Amino acid sequence: MKAINRRQAFALGGGFVMLTLMPMAADAQVTNDAAKWIEKFTGGKAPVKGKISLDLPEIAENGNTVPLSLSVESPMTEQAYVKEVMILADGNPNAGVATLMFTPLSGKAEASIRIRLAATQNVVAIAKMSDGSLFTEQKTVKVTIGGCGG
Amino acid sequence: MADKPRIKLPKEAAKGDVIQIKTLVSHVMESGQRKDAQGKAIPRKIINKFACEFNGKPLFACALEPAISANPYIQFNAKVDEAGTFKFSWTDDDGTVITAEEKIALKA
């Protein structure tokens, strides 16, 4: 490690200011519209935990592109399949991330996308089956550098 | 923009196989949250819908929000029961649609 010069010291200072400000911003954003999204998607029914496996890094160094993989345990036939999966981030300015729509032609209810996360927060997935049953899973991702503006 | 979308899938598959399809399209996915040098908000411009059809039947679709990274990468699966054509479409906020097609054959 090199000794820190003046410029780097300033950068570090700025980082600390950001760090102290970030949690406040995050607190304000926990009440983003996540509840409204869930309400709209589930129609007020409470989803059951399980069936979904949500794969996200525990720590995301860059919030601008966080890989997310998800799979839902279910047959994919005309009789029973995964219809939709909604992904939410409860600490982003807008809770919505993506809604995946599967069909029996998909073969497997599996998908990967890359998402933006503004700060350390929970990522929630809710799956809707063809029979209307709902399942949910959530995971906390620590974000070092936020992915929304800034 | 207007770069050709990149799509990766096998050229052929056995009947009933589940194949993996990877897609990547170049797009800024401007979230609407960022500000320019003058402090004005940069207007939102994202791809808000991705859809994939196989022989005219819907296979997979995805509604995208600003929380999707730039150059959206989407990976999903498809069950192949017959030879045919996959049609992909990405719909921009301004109404433009980027489309692509890929063919698949059945293994003899």
Structure description:
The complex is a heterodimer of chains A (150) and B (108). Chain A starts with 5 loop residues before the first helix and ends in a 5-residue tail after the last strand. Chain A is 23% helix and 39% strand. In chain A, strands 1, 3, 5, 6, 8 and 9 form a 6-stranded mixed sheet that branches. Chain A is an alpha+beta fold. Helices cover 0% and strands 52% of the residues of chain B. Chain B has a 5-stranded mixed sheet, with no helix packed on it. In chain B, strands 1-3-6 form a 3-stranded antiparallel sheet, with no helix packed on it. Chain B starts with 5 loop residues before the first strand and ends with a strand. The A-B interface holds A 64-66, 69, 76, 89, 92-94, 96-108, 110-117, 147-149 and B 18-19, 31, 33-35, 54, 57-70, 72-79. β7 of chain A pairs antiparallel with β6 (73-80) of chain B.
In terms of topology, how is this protein built?
The complex is a heterodimer of chains A (150) and B (108).
Chain A: H1 6-30, H2 34-42, E1 48-49, E2 52-55, E3 59-62, E4 66-72, E5 82-89, E6 96-102, E7 110-115, E8 121-129, E9 134-145
Chain B: E1 6-8, E2 12-13, E3 17-24, E4 47-54, E5 57-64, E6 73-80, E7 84-92, E8 97-106
Parallel strand pairs in B: 2-8
Antiparallel strand pairs in B: 1-3, 3-6, 4-5, 4-7, 7-8
Quick overview:
The complex is a heterodimer of chains A (150) and B (108). Chain A has 150 residues and is of the alpha+beta class.
Please tag this protein with its features:
heterodimer, A: 150 residues, alpha+beta, six-stranded mixed β-sheet, three-stranded antiparallel β-sheet, 2 helices, 23% helix, B: 108 residues, mainly beta, Immunoglobulin-like, five-stranded mixed β-sheet, 0% helix
